[in-house]
Amino acid sequence: MLLAAASTGVTPESTQQAIGYPTLFLLVLLGALVPVVPTGALVSTAAVVAFHQTAPFALALVFVTASLAAFLGDMALYWLGRRGMGSRNGSRWLEAIRSRAPEERLAQAQAKLADHGVAVLVLSRLVPAGRIPVMLACLMAEWPLRRFARGNLPACLAWAVTYQLIGILGGSLFNEPWEGVVAAVALTLTISAAPSVWRRVRSAR
User: Distance between the two ends of the chain, CA-based, in angstroms?
Assistant: First the structure.
């Protein structure tokens, strides 16, 4: 294996990059379209691996790949949602968005969107489970695709930076990449679960 790699001039690190970036792009894109994939954990994991690599632009490539995939996935989902809003029978994508947005959270998102506009869209990607209610509120407010894109671009950039910083933190705390991956994934999953746990505790009280 090593002889083959040496003969072709391909190092294990370059192989990781050749496979890793397209895989990250596809998974984040899929996670934007089907909101069950833990995309934040994926970005943090990729950032840990990139942190331990010697390539000078590894972290920058993770940022570009993740933010671009998130933006394109959000735009595709919003376009499908607008198409569903305009059709008589709706669409399965619109129903999928509605099923992920409880009425209480949707009402809050609509009120905040009416008061603060694009700023709410930017912050929605940084709040766990905040993206879908705000996207649905934009759909119900009949935002055109171009207006949604103007707010969604900085939202995706901020999201990619946030989860990449979590990965860098995990990678800097441990010498072995796998240890940093475990720490980053645990932290991102904890952050994602915190709002739902808090709501359950509050409702129990």
Answer: 60
User: How many helices and strands (H and E) does the chain possess?
Assistant: 10, 0
Tokens of 73: 């996935």
CB atoms within 10 A of CB 129: 17
Separation CA 154–CA 85 (nearest Å): 25
CB 164 within 8 A of CB 59: yes
- The pTM of this model reads 0.78
- Check if the beta carbon of residue 164 is closer than 8 Å to that of residue 63: yes
Q: Which residues contact 56 (CB under 8 A, 6 or more apart)?
A: none
In this structure, what are the phi and psi dihedrals at residue 35, rounded to the nearest 5 degrees?
Answer: -70, 55
Angle ∠(191,196,200) on CA atoms, nearest 5: 140
55, 13 contact by CB (below 8 A): yes
Calculate mean pLDDT across residues 146-166.
Answer: 93
Alpha helix positions (H), 52-102 = 58-86, 92-99
Q: Which pLDDT tens digit goes with each residue over 50-107?
A: 888 766 788 899 999 999 999 999 999 999 888 877 665 556 667 767 776 777 778 8
